[in-house]
Structures are given as structure tokens and as C-alpha cells.
Design a protein that fits this description.
CATH class of the largest domain: Alpha Beta
Shape: globular
CATH topology of the largest domain: endopeptidase fold (from Nostoc punctiforme)
Structural class: alpha+beta
Distance between the termini: 29 Å
Strand order of the largest sheet: 10-9-8-7-11
Amino acid sequence: MRLLALLFLGLALAQGELTHVVAPGETLFSIARRYGTTVEELKRLNGLQDFLIRPGQVLRVSPAQDPTHVVAPGETLFSIARRYGTTVEALKALNGLESDELQAGQVLRLPQRTLPEAPAPPPQEEALDPESPLLRSVLRYLGVPYKYGANSPLALDCSAFVAQVYAELGVALPRTTHEQWRALPEAEGLKPGDLVFFSFAGREVDHVGIYLGRGVFAHASSYGSRVVIESLEAPFYQKAYRGARRPPLPEAGR
């Protein structure tokens, strides 16, 4: 197996392709964010049928020279610019856009300097097991559209996403963000599976997500208009972060 991995790596380098050796605790999502590509592209390039990868595995990755973003339903130039730390004017200039109108499925070029870099994992930080029931449940909801007050297979808000993920693990949580914040005990030191809370209005908590370890969390994002995985260390989220609560999840589920 090691010989095959080295052979694969040599062939990739000879063809000028970019490769990545999977480190412990990494996921397809963290690798995709690091190289400015998508999970779907990584799966296509490597012939993967699911999201599972293992330490030491050699992955082909998309070149980072030409980063792009595929417009999802409900996204705007403003929400995309905010997500990647750029401006609406820069996106319009790079893509030759005359107006602010976008279409779902439209591919936008991104300024390379705005790509979010993968956060360096803190030493000895606990990582979520790639085969854990919690991660498997989270992955099933990725891409589901965000809608305030919604709680269905077609759309979710942030607290409904959290509650549904934990319901699949046999844990009943309150329905709203504020109720979840009040009902659960405070988390001392973040661990995978903890709920992370934010206040974007500047008063009470009004947003919640699920921490996955290695500095990333999953949430139903009103800015991204869907369930996504993002960096908790991004300034936008650090400014609004209010704390974490720990659900009574069995260790086997983490």
C-alpha cells in the first residue's frame, strides 16, 4: 500500500498535479478549504464514493491558481464577498459583471488572496473521528437551504439543524437557539460535538452551530443560505462568538 501511494505521488508530481497527504484529524472539508476547491471536486479527482479518508492517504487536489465559487440558490454578491473576505466591486470586476444579479449554478472567479486559509490546529486538540455518527449526521445535511423558522427536509434554520442532527443520535434538544443556550451546561474547553453560540445582533444569542474540532464548525448559515462548514477562527465569527454548551452526547457518538 505504501509503495502504491508513493508511485501515485510520483506520477502526480511528474504530471504537474498538486497532491496532499492526509494528516490525522483532517477531513475532505478542511482540505478543500485549504486548497480553495470543493469536496465534490476532491471526490471526483480521487474516485471517492463517500467522505471517509484516512491518515497517510494521498489525494489529488485542484490547483489553487484559479479559485472559483459556484453560486447556490439565494446567494448574492454581498454574501459571497463577505464569505471570502473580498468586496462586491472586486467580484464584479474579476467576472466582468455589469449588474448584481446572479443565477444558481453560475461559476464566479475569486481573488486568490481572499481564499480562507486552513487554520493551524492547536497542539493536541481533540479531533472528531471521521467515522463518528455525529459527523455522518452532519454531512447528510450539508447544502440544505437555510430559511428562518424552517424545520423540514427542504429547509432549516440554525437551531433546527442542530436539533435534527442530535435527534438522529437519540438526544432531544430544545427547538430554539435561546432555549438550547439556557438548557445545556457550559462547555469548559471546546470539544467536537459542542454547540457554539453567537450574537450577531449584539444582545442575546441568536445563532448556533456544531463544533467539529480543528477549528471548524457546521451550521445553517443565513449568509451562505445553506448548511455549511466554516472556520470558527474567522474574524466575522470570533467577533460574534458568545460561548459553548455541551449536549449529553454519548462518547460513541462523538
